[in-house]
Design goal:
Layout: E1 2-3, E2 20-29, H1 33-44, E3 49-52, H2 68-81, H3 92-98, E4 104-107, E5 109-114, E6 130-134, E7 143-146, H4 148-161, E8 165-167, E9 170-177, E10 183-189, E11 192-203, H5 210-214, E12 229-236, E13 263-268, E14 271-277, E15 283-289, H6 291-297, H7 303-312, H8 314-320, E16 324-325, E17 330-332, E18 337-338, E19 347-349, H9 351-354, E20 355-356, H10 364-382, H11 387-415, H12 420-442, H13 460-477, H14 480-495, E21 511-512, H15 516-521, H16 530-538, H17 544-550
Parallel strand pairs: 2-3, 2-11, 3-8, 5-13, 6-21, 11-19
Antiparallel strand pairs: 1-2, 4-7, 5-6, 9-10, 10-11, 12-15, 12-16, 12-17, 13-14, 14-15, 18-20
Helix pairs in contact: 1-4, 1-10, 2-10, 7-8, 10-11, 11-12, 11-13, 12-14, 13-14
């Protein structure tokens, strides 16, 4: 990196009273977790990096709930590129011991409840209005919610410590590709002009971000996907569900994990509400709504719209009756977004800037981290060669295809909102694919699931698409109730070839614990021996021989890897 100025500088190295001219290998626009993490990796690969941010840290950001696959990929990145200080963030236990002051939430699973407008949640004795899917056998190896003001700020500091040049309060005006030379970013920091010349520009500025505007990239959207809207903020004073009726009751047994230590989804016709808890007393909550409901609630009115929403659902009203917001509401409309082009010869959008679907099922984090992993490999193997543009083109195809896969699933889930029993079955397409993918990666067989949600699996990929399409079509025909049984049976048939987590066991009545025995019994689906699976489970926090002998659930054991328990029923 070179700097044309040699005069007195401020705390970020900017020459006072003159233009700042920088040259670097990689310029990254946006210092959220994805941009900062990629900056650290690029520095590990020996590339000079300029990291540009329009705001200042710490700052509010949405997208907070990790997933088992996300933490697994984060761990893989840390192992490959020697990110020893970041690795503890891959699981609750190591995070709390290493960085207790970084805000975090405990995520033991995915919790879903079905609601009807005007009625309190009562709890069906057969649990047809709820779904609990465990993500870990115990807290130590659990997933997390990332309190982004703390998390992103930490990663920015890591990028600086790795040698990246970080500039905040930057407003970029344009981007110019100069023949075969560098890409030039122009703008200002305050009153000071700024020019950055980079051999590669990476956009991590989010949907409809910098390169989308600067290059005039066409927006492709997702065919048939509704133009949903979001409304969200942070709260304090939100009681736990388990302290409210009827959630304090057993529903016929002990839940597989504490229901609030999860990504909690409240699902109803035309929308859903998320509730995520952090260990600093803050709760993230918001709604994603289909156009009809968004219009009725007038989501653009912020807090008033939130009160109108709570007025429709007595149980949600009871939970948030005494809650207080800690910042203004954010209205996001429309939520879905996808570009038609996500990379060129000297630029690339990270997945979070190339597409966004919906917060449902926490798909954003794994998509972002898988994209970082692929883009980092392209730099590692192709930098300075004619192979890099081809690698960027392949990267573009993959991330846009995977965004389309996520959108198809979420479209089917939205179509099933009015029928929670069917909605719960559709989610199993996600959990079956995710648990299979995680286990395959842990067994060093990533080729079995090298696309998000196993979209290119020879049997499941086609069945997944057909199940989603049939649910969407039945919703259009208004025949969901009549076709529910057939559609659910179709889904269970689709997931069977890669269900390694016992999700096909209907006797569980929508409560899915994490069991070692189901993984042991599914070794053949991954092409490995039972002994190989036992070894994996022993290294992942289980005692598989004891579990198999007793027929009981999981017995925790010492884990050799924080995210190693990211397998099984997720």
């Amino acid at each position: 990196m070179s700097d044309s100025q040699g005069s007195q500088r401020d705390r970020n190295g900017i020459a006072a009273g003159s233009q700042r001219d920088l040259e670097c290998d990689v310029a990254i626009v946006g210092s959220g977790f994805a941009g900062s993490l990629f900056a650290v990796i690029a520095r590990r690969l020996g590339r000079s990096v300029v990291l540009l941010e329009k705001e200042t840290h710490p700052r509010f950001a949405i997208g907070e709930s990790s997933s088992p696959l996300a933490n697994l990929v984060l761990e893989e990145l840390c192992n490959r590129y020697g990110l020893d200080r970041i690795r503890p963030l891959a699981a609750w236990g190591t995070w709390q011991r290493t960085y207790p002051r970084i805000g975090c939430g405990l995520k033991r699973g995915f919790t879903f409840y079905g609601h009807k407008a005007g009625e309190p949640f009562r709890g069906d004795p057969w649990r047809r209005d709820q779904l609990l899917v465990a993500a870990s056998p115990r807290d130590e190896v659990a997933d997390t919610h990332w309190y982004r003001p703390d998390f992103d700020h930490f990663l920015v500091r890591e990028a600086q410590a790795a040698g990246a040049e970080y500039l905040d309060r930057v407003k970029l005006d344009g981007c110019v590709e100069e023949g075969d030379g560098p890409v030039v970013l122009r703008g200002a920091r305050g009153q000071e002009p700024l020019a950055v010349r980079a051999r590669l520009v990476v956009d991590a500025s989010g949907p409809r971000g910098f390169l989308f505007r600067a290059l005039g990239l066409p927006e492709a959207g997702f065919p048939g996907f509704p133009s949903t809207e979001g409304l969200y903020t942070h709260f304090t004073g939100v009681p736990r569900l388990e302290d409210l009726e009827p959630f304090s009751e057993s529903f016929g047994g002990r839940p597989p994990y504490p229901i609030d230590d999860a990504a909690v989804h409240h699902v109803f016709e035309e929308g859903w509400v998320w509730v995520l808890r952090f260990n600093n007393g803050i709760v993230s909550a918001g709604v994603a709504a289909l156009p009809g409901l968004a219009g009725e609630l007038r989501l653009s009115e912020g807090e008033a719209a939130w009160r109108r929403l709570l007025g429709r659902f007595p149980t949600l009203h009871a939970q948030f009756a005494r809650a207080r917001t800690v910042r203004p509401f954010v209205h996001a409309a429309p939520l879905p977004f996808r570009v038609s082009k996500a990379a060129g010869a000297r630029w690339a959008l990270l997945p979070s800037a190339a597409a966004f679907v919906d917060p449902l099922l926490s798909t954003g984090f794994p998509l972002a981290l898988l994209g970082i992993q692929r883009l980092a490999l392209a730099l590692e193997e192709g930098w300075g060669t004619a192979a890099l543009p081809h690698a960027l083109a392949a990267y573009e195809r993959t991330i846009l295809e995977e965004a389309g896969t996520a959108a198809l699933l979420v479209s089917a889930l939205f179509a099933a909102f009015a029928d929670f029993e069917l909605f719960g079955a559709v989610t199993l397409l996600y959990f079956a694919a995710a648990s299979f993918s995680e286990t395959a990666r842990r067994l060093s067989r990533p080729e079995l699931a090298d696309r998000f949600l196993c979209a290119n699996h020879p049997t499941f990929g086609r069945a997944f698409s057909r199940c989603c399409a049939d649910v969407i079509e039945a919703a259009k025909r208004r025949t969901l109730a009549r076709e529910r049984g057939r559609l659910i049976d179709q889904i269970f048939e689709a997931i069977e070839p890669l269900d390694v987590a016992g999700l096909s066991d209907r006797s569980r009545r929508n409560w899915h614990p994490m069991e070692a025995r189901t993984l042991l019994q599914s070794a053949h689906k991954l092409g490995v021996t039972r002994e190989a699976m036992e070894g994996l489970l022993s290294a992942s926090g289980f005692e598989p021989r004891e579990a198999a002998r007793s027929g009981a659930g999981v017995s925790p054991a010492a884990s050799s890897s924080p995210a190693a328990a990211g397998i099984g029923s997720r």
